């Protein structure tokens, strides 16, 4: 009899052909042996991880995703309060905040040497500077806290053997992305400190391209944490029969998820160019459906990333398409389509959150970008992406008929 024995750190696993009866292999089995007939190596390895280990890994992943969510919100507030350029240096492990008036004066004098103060904030007092400095300091320290919250439990769980081989690769990828995100944040801030703003009418700001990259990498990191947390705690459900309509529904769900992500990136361009402060009317642009300065820059391609009017126009169109796609998914799943049970709830949540996001965006525009509404709108983009991720996660096995 050919029996393959696999010894691991937790148990012995015996792989047995399907046609071999239990009585034939009973002498080979021990109390710590798991018999695998059809689950395969991945299912066997999953069984090795104790239930308590899976629960703690899941909680940790949810915690990491929540902290990245908080970093996005805090970063949005930092940008909206124009605090991002208040710290003019960067230290890998941070630095002690000023405590005495002399130290605050020194920090303020460093800020005064850069374009934002010279061209925009020459009337700023020390107390006003302290506010924007603390906002940026809090954002940076929150990012370092994320690194600590990720690294220490990851090392412990790795040592305990609570990561599968696939999860180890994802954990390494997340760790690299956290470090990259920190470096990218400083690279973004540095663009606003460069001596490239000469005219008094210039508005010192960070590069919209670097802002988009910084926000986009944060969204990717958040998505990785949330997706793996769902995989550990709520594995996707299977259905007995997969129809052609269900497959098309899955394709549309993935397309919607990608579109929501791209729409969020276009929102970063809006933020980087302060494009929300032009044409504060809806649905028309002033009294026109198509603004007259839509393609004012030359060459034409520059308009899509450097013209505030074009950037706002694109973001409006993309938001409209997003809500149409999400609404189509919400209505389609109610037409008797056979899907995994939780997929119906996820599709409904996606539709509802997308409509809420559109409402927040219109309100932010009409009210000339108040800080509270703008921050909620940015957070709403992450909520919308979360629902899209949840839906596609639940549709993971809507590919072919399960064996």
UniProtKB/TrEMBL annotation:
| Highest taxon above the source species | Eukaryota
Q: Where in the cell is it found?
A: Membrane
What keywords sit in the KW lines?
A: Heme biosynthesis, Iron, Membrane, Metal-binding, Oxidoreductase, Transmembrane, Transmembrane helix
Q: Pfam families attached here?
A: COX15-CtaA
According to its UniProt record, where is this protein mainly located? membrane
A GO CC annotation given for this chain = mitochondrial inner membrane
The transmembrane residues are 60-80, 141-159, 171-189, 209-230, 258-279, 315-332, 344-369
Q: Cofactor(s) for this protein?
A: heme b
Q: Which GO terms describe its biological process?
A: heme A biosynthetic process
Its recorded reaction(s) are: Fe(II)-heme o + 2 A + H2O = Fe(II)-heme a + 2 AH2
Q: Which InterPro entries match?
A: COX15/CtaA_fam, HemeA_Synthase_type2
Q: Which GO terms describe its molecular function?
A: heme A synthase activity; metal ion binding; oxidoreductase activity, acting on NAD(P)H, heme protein as acceptor
From the UniProt record, give the pathway where this protein acts: Porphyrin-containing compound metabolism; heme A biosynthesis; heme A from heme O: step 1/1
Membrane topology qualifier = Multi-pass membrane protein
PANTHER family, alphabetized: CYTOCHROME C OXIDASE ASSEMBLY PROTEIN COX15, CYTOCHROME C OXIDASE ASSEMBLY PROTEIN COX15 HOMOLOG
User: Could you tell me what this protein is called?
Assistant: Cytochrome c oxidase assembly protein COX15 homolog
